Amino acid sequence: MLLSCGAQAQVQNLTGTLKKVKDANQIVLGVREASFPFSYSDNSGNTIGYSQDIAMRIVDEVKKELNLPHLDVKLVQITSQNRIPLMQNGTIDLECGSTTNTFAREKQVGFSDSIFLYGIRMVSKKSSHINDFADLAGKTVASTAGTSDEKLLRTMNEEKKMNMQVISPKEHYEAFQDVASDRAVAFVMDEPLLYGERAKAKHPDDYVITGKPPVSENYACMLRKDDAPFKHLVDGVISKMQTSGEAEKLYTKWFTQPTPPNGVNMNYPLSAEMKALFAHPNDKALD
């Protein structure tokens, strides 16, 4: 099928990620192995989750924009530590997982409109009687390597002279296991990820999520810095999902109902802050 003159001009004038995708007939998504329920692998090795569903809606829009109905979608597993370098060096084109939009990171990569708002808290065993961050003084505490939470925890430890021993495993589930095995007294992380790890535990009621959040943060999809055309497309998809009610239905699917592959239900109701975000989409960092 022949493209119209306008469509031909549009394709010829592509820049940044859209040009890269068009030239390669391939878009590369950075995905997580175990960031439940945002981006994680099921029992068959497929990547699923709340953020992954958003990523695939963006892919659908890219296919329409570039007239590439058979666009190849390649998935590359990433970690909290390597996700920014892999975006900067061109390995991945888009990452929708559990990446926090911070002012510091905005100097390195680009971010879409926010897809999730949350506070930083901690999970511990009920028997530990940990109620707030001050109770962590002198104790061993886990936080996933390469995250804004790990940075916050180490800064808190230094500035408040709390004498914590901070350990930093690579994945969230490893940090939770540190608590389960009593290697650490608490796991400090984004609240929804804590709910996810607790929901997967053999005895979820043995654990409690506590602590007054020292900061509120937001997840967004990560893209290349200063790539206005691609950001415009991505933001357009997210904004439409949020204002149309589609995002709220997606939230219900992943946070208040049984999820694959094991039927885990996080029982994590939609917050007033999330409702406000869906009504007024924006890309503001909160730190």
Automatic annotation (TrEMBL):
The keyword Zinc is annotated on this UniProt entry: no
SMART domains, per database record: PBPb
Gene3D superfamilies: Periplasmic binding protein-like II
Keywords assigned by UniProt, alphabetized: Signal, Transport
Location of the Solute-binding protein family 3/N-terminal domain: 26-258
GO process annotations (BP): amino acid transport
Entry superkingdom: Bacteria
Signal peptide coordinates: none
Pfam families with a match to the protein in the record: SBP_bac_3
Entry annotated with the keyword Protein biosynthesis: no
CC per GO annotation: extracellular region; outer membrane-bounded periplasmic space
Assigned protein family: Belongs to the bacterial solute-binding protein 3 family.
Name of the protein in its database record: Amino acid ABC transporter substrate-binding protein
Organism this protein belongs to: Trinickia soli
